[in-house]
Amino acid sequence: GNSEYRQVPLKNPLNDARGMAEALKSAGFGVSLGLELTQAGIREAIRAYSDNLARTKAVGLFYFAGHGAQLAWRNYLIPVDAEIVNVEELRERCVDLNSLIEGIKRAGNPMNLIILDACRDNPFGGSSRLDQKGLSQLDAPPGTLLAYATAPGNTAIDGAGENGLYTEHLLR
Question: pTM of the prediction?
Answer without folding.
Answer: 0.90
